[in-house]
Amino acid sequence: MEYTTLNTGARIPKIGFGVFQIPDAEECKRVVLDAIKTGYRLIDTAASYGNEEAVGAAIREAIDQGIVTRKELFITTKLWVTDASYEKAKTAIRRSLDKLGLDYLDLYLEHQPMGDYFGAWHAMEEAFKEGTLKAIGVCNFFPSILVNFCENVEIKPAVNQVELHPFFAQPEALEIMKEYGVIPEAWAPLAEGKHGIFTDPMLTAIGAKYGKSAAQVVLRWNVQRGVIIIPKSTHVERMRQNIDVLDFELTDEEMAKISALSLDHSEIIDHFDPKLVQFLNRRVLN
Predict the structure, then answer these.
(1) In sequence order, which residues have a C-beta less than 8 Å from that of residue 252 and are 6 or more positions away?
(2) Which pLDDT value is given to residue 77?
(3) Per the CATH hierarchy, to which homologous superfamily does domain 3-282 belong?
(4) 138 three-state secondary structure
(5) How far is residue 109's CA from residue 267's CA, in Å, rounded to a whole number?
(6) If residue 26 lies in a helix (H) or strand (E), which one and from where to where?
(7) What's 98's DSSP letter?
(8) Residue 88 pLDDT
(9) Beta strands 228-229 and 183-187: pairing type?
């Protein structure tokens, strides 16, 4: 595995495993354990996914079986919108640690720039200074929001997890993150399978040159842009393929061709939709 160094000095794997939309406890435990056996060391979950306990169970089993040590793992979870305040965030951090069965988190992220996310950040800064959180960051902070945030907090985010794939490349957002020393991390790095991404003729042709699939080409493209990727799959063979993207390098011309696919907007979620913002603010976790 290759690593990127965060602004805290900690090293984060360039490829991780996401567990979004795996709410079933037994299935989630199985796939996380399979991912760890396959070689993944970065596991990304969230309070809102409803599977922190299952992820924790898989971690404990992997450690008990001697597959990994806790120190080798990089565990991420996220603060939900309705817990975005100073006092609520302190409680939410402890709740996630308890559900995961961990003494510390390698990375803790604000899931959305909603609610009192500045107040929540102060609680996260305190937990970082105490060592409970080894790194803190954000998700879905668009450039103007990220700039305002970075200009007004003591500790700048280590990571900004946003939608990044060839159909929503966000080059300007990457430049802003670079300016503030924030590492970009991609959710939906395979565009959730939209736009025929797995069979796209151009991506397939590039892959054939390297003996790789279109999906592997897409993941490699983000890695070469300095983006951490967290693809999800419930199938072991695809897990293996998704992590096997560090043994080839795309040319500048190939990178440009892939970037040219960008539509410059998301077709997965519209964070600027008032009704979506209303829904997210009103969604209370069980």
Answers:
(1) none
(2) 98
(3) NADP-dependent oxidoreductase domain (3.20.20.100)
(4) strand
(5) 23
(6) helix 25-38
(7) H
(8) 98
(9) parallel
Note the pLDDT of residue 236.
96
CB of 78 closer than 8 Å to CB of 48: yes
The residues spanned by each domain of the chain are: 3-282
**What is the rounded CA–CA span in Å between residue 227 and residue 213?**
19
Closest-CA residue to 56 (of 99, 108, 21): 99
Which pairs from 243-252 meet CB under 8 Å and 24+ separation?
243/15, 243/38, 243/39, 243/40, 244/216, 245/15, 245/212, 245/216, 245/219, 245/220, 246/1, 246/2, 246/14, 246/15, 248/210, 248/212, 248/220, 249/220, 249/224, 250/206, 250/217, 250/220, 250/221, 250/224
Q: How far apart are CA 256 and CA 278, in angstroms?
A: 37
Please give the helix or strand (H or E) that residue 187 lies within, else none.
strand 183-187
The string of DSSP letters for 40-71 reads: --EEE--GGGT-HHHHHHHHHHHHHTTS--GG
User: Which helix H or strand E contains 213, and what residues bound it?
Assistant: none
The mean pLDDT values, 10 residues at a time, for the chain of 286 residues are 96 97 94 98 97 98 97 98 98 98 98 98 98 98 98 98 98 98 98 95 98 98 98 95 98 98 95 96 90
- Catalytic positions are 49
- Evaluate if pTM is beyond 0.85: yes
Residue 173's contacts (CB-CB under 8 Å, 6 or more residues apart) are 142, 143, 146, 160, 162, 184
Give backbone dihedrals phi and psi of 165, rounded to 5 degrees, phi first: -160, 170
Contact indicator for 7, 181 with CB cutoff of 8 Å: yes
| CB atoms closer than 10 angstroms to residue 201 | 9
190 forms beta bridges with none
Order of strands across the sheet with 228-229? 16-18, 42-44, 74-79, 107-110, 136-139, 159-163, 183-187, 228-229
Beta bridge mates, 4: 12
**Would you say 217 and 206 are in contact if contact means Cβ atoms under 8 Å apart?**
yes
